[in-house]
Amino acid sequence: MTANKNPEESCLFCRIANDEIPSQKLYENEDFLAFLDLYPIAKGHALVIPKEHSHCFEEVDVSKGTELLSLVKKIAKAVKKATGAPAFNIGLNNGKEAGQVIMHTHFHIIPRFENDGLKNWKNKTYGEGEIEIYRDKIVSELEKK
Ligand code: ZN
After folding, report:
1. Cα(104) to centroid of ligand 1, in Å?
2. Terminus-to-terminus CA distance in the chain, angstroms?
3. Does the annotation count 55 as an active-site position?
4. How far apart are CA 17 and CA 1, in angstroms?
5. Catalytic residue among 45, 53, 106, 108, which?
6. CA–CA separation, 9 vs 20, rounded Å?
7. Distance from Cα 139 to the centre of ligand 1, integer Å
8. FRET pair for 97, CA 20 to 30 Å: which of 58, 108, 115, 121?
9. What's the predicted TM-score (pTM) here?
10. pLDDT exceeds cutoff 50 at 1
């Protein structure tokens, strides 16, 4: 077990990453940890976290992004096989309004079954000319330094 590089005393996931609080570990290496969510949306619901603390996705160090994505994929495949789920959701709740409860960036891997009672997001529609306005605003943000 490698000690967390930037432990935050009050952060539950830093404490889990630091082995101060036990968890149902699935996998870990120097930079990342995967473990089972104690309050699963479905049994087998797994979490993947960077051990280095970041409050939100925007703060995540992306220098090891490929490794992180590979791990999310590896855990998702294992969860799918182990639970017999035909499908899964990968999610990241970023910010309180998006449903983030633990303020340490984490990916959810949720096994899904037909008629499992979970509802997909409800789609909305744009008004006349509205989609272009949103596109222009986002493109404008992307073009800023
Ligand atoms: Zn943390």
Report:
1. 5
2. 39
3. no
4. 9
5. 106
6. 10
7. 32
8. 115
9. 0.90
10. no
